[in-house]
Amino acid sequence: MMRIIFPLLVGIATLFVGSAAAQNGATLRSDAPDSHTVVKGDTLWGISGRFLNEPWRWPEVWRMNRDQIRNPHLIYPGQVILLDRSGPWLSVGRRIGGSQGMRDEKLQPQVYSEPLTEAVPSIPLQVIEPFLTKPLIVDQARIEGAATIVATETSRVLMGSGDTVFAKNVREGTQVWQILRPARPLEDPVTHKVVAYEANYLGTAKVSEFGTPATLEILSAVEEIEVGDLMVPSERPSVFAYAPHAPAEDIDGRVMSIYRGVTETGRLHVIALNVGERDGLERGHVVALHRNRGVAEFKGDDGKETFVLPDKRYGLGVVFRVFDHVAYALVMESDGPVVIGDMVRKP
Q: Is the pLDDT reported for residue 189 higher than 70?
């Protein structure tokens, strides 16, 4: 598949004028270069970090129209990102005229194409790819409606790829199923109520014969599968192609869990939030991470005084998958560890 890059070179339409960009807080780094040549492994967030103090604001200064901001055109290794400080604006161009400096080159409209397989993503997709299609959250309703493995062909306790299993509640018309096991409850750190169950993904199975029970062959297994494990219809692959943007409304949430059950984590790790679609979150939303500094006591001439210390904003995350009451985010920036119970707010 090929894509024409010309609209990015000349700019189809400007989403924000220069003053609007300033009002939205997109400011240049003091050491921002005039250009950057894209290399394999770059992300739009990382590239923008070379130019902007807050990299997640890059959609505000790219010459794209509103539709492209929501689902941006991708760029490719070998292209050059150009900085126009008058806006500031960022745009995509190509080096022309050999080894001359960018300021001495005469830019002409160019029409060329690149394979999409080399495209540069918004954020590191290799980190979140396992989370985009696998079942992560199962609530009570989904557990009650799931298919269940009730027996194995050879009465073995543990099963793997190539083995045959039998399951109940397998709906006709759905050929491929994902196998999971509710691993642990997710407890809201504020209310201490269980809001959902985090699923432990086990593998996939394909129906070879519908019936009661149905017969299935295990196609893949990342862990051993046993009688009692649940199955849900396989989800279509999901591509994360959203530009980062702030939520429209204020967000008041907490870090509810850290994937794999650890108590703290850091940059480029996945966290679960106790807010979701019903709270206004959507894929691509940027959230600020805040830490409660706690309470300080001061003993002076007037006796003991107590002060509630202000929260500290220490990092940013990008929401990449959303459920009703839960959202998963990738930590993009962090000045210190991310801990369960930390606050999540609109940046």
A: yes
Among 215, 212, 219, 139, smallest CA distance to 179 is for 219
Both tokens assigned to 206: 């394909």
With 70 as the cut, is the pLDDT of residue 9 above it? no
**3-class secondary structure, 113:** strand
**Is there a contact between 198 and 257 (Cβ–Cβ < 8 Å)?**
yes
Strand-strand pairing, 230-233 and 176-187: antiparallel
**Would you state the pLDDT for residue 118?**
59
Q: Return the ∠ at Cα 59 (arms to 37 and 343), rounded to 5°.
A: 115
SS3 151: strand
Give residue-wise pLDDT tens across range 205-237: 999 999 999 999 999 888 889 999 999 888 776
Whether residue 61 contacts residue 88, with contact meaning beta carbons closer than 8 Å, is answered with yes
Nearest 10 degrees: CA dihedral of 221, 225, 230, 236? 0
In which band, very low, low, confident or very high, does the pLDDT at 259 lie, cut at 50, 70 and 90? confident
- State whether residue 131 is helix, strand or coil: helix
The single residue listed with the structure tokens 């029970």 is 213
Average pLDDT value for residue range 118-143: 74
Length of the chain: 347
Which residue's entry shows tokens 């009688």?
Answer: 227
Of 313, 326, 194, 330, which Cα lies nearest the Cα of 273? 326
